[in-house]
Structures are given as C-alpha cells and as structure tokens.
Amino acid sequence: MRVEEALHVKLSKRNSGLVATTIAAALLMTACGGDDGGDSGEATAADGGSFSIYIGDPENPLVPGNTNETEGGQVVDSLWTGLVEYDPDTNETVYTGVAESIESEDQQTWTVTLKDGWTFHDGTPVTAQSFVDAWNYTSYSPNAQGNSYFFSNIAGYEDLQAPKGPDGEPTGEPPVAEELSGLRVIDDQTFEVELSAPYAQWPTTTGYTAFYPLPEAFFEDPEGFGEQPIGNGPFKADEAFVPGQGITLTRYEEYGGEQPANAEQVEYRVYTELNTAYTDLQGGSLDIVDTLPPDAIASAEGEFGERFIETPQGDITSLGFPTYDQRFADPNVRKAFSMAIDRQAISDAIFQGTRTPAASFVNPVVPAHREDACEACELNVEEANRLLDEAGFDRTQPVDLWFNAGAGHEEWMQAIGNQIRENLGVEYQLRGDLQFAEYLPLQDAQGMTGPFRSGWIMDYPVAENFLGPLYSTAALPPAGSNSTFYSNPEFDALLAEGNAADTEEAAIEAYQAAEDVLIADLPAAPLFYRLNQGAHSENVRNVVIDAFGRVDAAAVEVVE
Asked: What is the pTM of this model?
C-alpha cells in the first residue's frame, strides 16, 4: 500500500509461515507479543467496549481507489472487506472475504463468484456491479485515483487513460472509453475479468485496498463519501472524518464476514508527533501505537512486557531520488550517494540493530528476494567518490534531504546527511517540515529538490508489488506511486513478462531480471527492512500487527 507515514512503510497482509519464520531468524529477532496483550492472565474481554489507535493524517479522503498510504489505509481496512483476505500467521490468501471463488482455465480470463449476504453499511447489497463500477471509476484517468495503476493489467485500461502528446503531456482530450472492456457482469453474484495477458497470481492481488467495492451512494456524492464512507467491513462510520483529529467507528452488526468486530467502537486518533502519541500510550490515554520512536526502541520491551509487539514486516525503506532534477539525472550520482551510506552503522546506532540493511528492492518475505542483489547498496567510499567525479557533480552546492515531519525520521535522515558530508564532501540541508498529508502530494508534483525518504509496505505477497507500483511507467502519478518518476521500457517489459509467467520459477526469473535493470539505474537506494514494533495499553488484548503493518482492529478485545 504505498508510502508509510512513520518508521515503517505500511502498503498490505501475506506469504507463508515458513517465510515469516525465516525472515524473523534473518533479522536475528524473535517475534513476540500480540496474543494475550496483558501482563496478567486474569483479565477477561469485555462484550464490546471502546479503544483507540494512533494514526497520522491521511493524504486523501477515505476512498479505497485513492487511498494508497498507511494512515488512510488503516482506517479504510476497518471500513471495508475485499474479495480475499490474508492469513495473519502465514500471509497466504484465504477466501474469508466477499469472494466464494476466483477461477480461471487460462490464467487470463477469471470468473469471480461472490458469496450471498454481504451488505454495505447503508443496507444495500454488495453485488458484482459494486466491484465493476468501483474498478471502472478508479481506472478512469480523469478521476485521478492514486490506485489506478492496479487495474493496468485489465483489458481496455489504456482506453481509459487521457491521450498524451509526443512530449508526454496530456493533450486535453478525454479518454476514448469510460469502462474497462475486460470487466463483464454476469449476474448479481458473478463477474468476469479479462486481463491483457495471463497473470497466475492475480487472485492474490485482489485483497488490496484498490479492489474494494463501492455502493451506489458513492457515485452520487464522491466528495462527501470520502469524508464519511460507506463500506462493507466490520466497522462503520456514523460520523465524518475530521482532519487533524480523526474518526470514531462503530461495529457493523450486519457484517457479512466470518469474524465480526469484538469491540463496539474504535477511535482513530490523529497525532502530528509520534512522540506525543507514545507519551499518551505510556500514560494510558491511548491504547495502540503501531510504531515506536527511535529513542524508545531499547526500553519499550522492558516497559511494556507482554504488551510490547514485535513481528516481521514486508516493507522497504529507501532513499528516493528525483530523477527529474538535473543534479540526480545521472545514475552514477545516485549510485555514489547510495555507496556513501553505512546502513548497518545507522541501524546499530539509532535503531538498536532492529533494521536490516537492504541490498534488494524486494523484501525477504517474498520468494524473489536476493540478499546481495544490489552492489551499489554496499558502503564503498572510494568508488562513490570516483563515480561522483566522473559524473561532474558540483560538490560546492548542498543537497536537500526530504522527509515527513513528526514521525521519527529526523535522527536517521540526519545520520545519512552526516555520512554524505563525511564520505562525499557534500553539505546537506534537512527538509522535514511537512506533515505526511502535505509531503506525499509534493512528491507527486515533482517537488522534491533532493533525495527523499520513501517507505513502502507490500499490498500483496508478490515480488511485483515491490517493483511495479513504485517504478513502472504505468505507476507514474497520479495513477500510482512512482514518485521518483523513473521510466524504462526494458524494466516495464520484464515486469510484464513476470506477470505473464505460467510458473512461479519463471515469474521469479523475470522479476529478478527487472530488478537488475532497476539496480543499474537506481532511481532509489534501498536502505532498510524493518520489524513491526509497537505496544498497547492494559485496556486491550489480542492486538495483532500483520506483515502489512496493519492493526487488525476487528480482532482487538477490550479488557474488563
């Protein structure tokens, strides 16, 4: 699900238990916490009750097709349930959502059959049309939905994109179509999806936010809907979201899923400073914080005991480069900056060794990960200086280092700046004055004047999710999250080849070849993979933070 606001990169939920165990071992940490949630086994769960969760301000109104960051995504996931879900222990796709089945004989034309009994919060039924209408709306480029990219492999997608001239700029003419030719409603419980090419892993993708259904009420007032959404999930919105404050959701008693919400209410409380949220957690006035300030990492487990949570996460933190800026247009400049960073030293000094240095764009929780794919991700000061000299980089001018405010990034971004100054002789200026909801739009508007902090959490457990949504041409804003504005036809072609592969082995081979192209160009420098590290109050138990960085709000129990 795109960019993460705090120290993790929240973007989704999924792979195997064996993989999860492997990554935990690789991180030299043991996952703990989350089952009982209390220091005493004597507490019992109340019937209902209310609890609170920390979030930052979402970037956009709460519409699934335009929510591709962690803060809005956390709320949207409480309001909606998709076609499939992901097992929190194994990350495998499970059919506990709206879909009874998703089947295909050729991996290109898929038949989606829905379960009976699902309704939206306004009482209207969830039908095949609910999905088809939502997907068409998100795909249609004049609607400028940030999750449009995820439908780019459905037949007819290109016809829903506004024409562009030879210079790549829109011509001002409307798209030639308003509906995807690859979507066909068969009946209320069945629809057909024709992809532009075979994609064996397509059903796995459909649990992501972008694929959620929309009721008819959305199309009557999209703007108002985003303030007070109507979903089909375990919680419903009886009030509007208030920017800077948050929203309180209530349990939806007619929920169609297998596991209704345990609590009566969940309050999503917006904080501009992570440290303030953590202080409130310590004082008992906030119940769940899903990430920790760097200076709390060493003491949190001792302070919270069994209420401390640490689990593997399918994410990556990177240093993005504005490839549209002349200073960073040369791949050798980007490689030089990457080689000047001592990732392990930063992990040890600031994160107590809980960040694993990244040498691949793909997280270890998915099979295509390679431990040493990126040579330019290793500290090599001599080679970095040679590349910078070869590129003719002007070292007399400082570089701006961008990150979002209030989420605990300043200390480690300053450490990167200090290493760049020491190892490359280039001064830096920290640009960390924008809140998350301001920071992302500036990225999409090509407003980064230097390297910038970029975070991503997987939306689904496929290597493509770490590549396509961030670096493909189809994912250039506003259709996706390609905030470096990188574009390479060879990369795009290899990505498509991986998607069309008829075996996992062939897909991995193509995805790794695509990653090799990405490493040669290095539009971003992979930095770290992280653990989920959070904590909760004595008021709640059964707090689960999954591999997608999401708190399962429906599972949380309030303690009597």
From this structure: 0.81
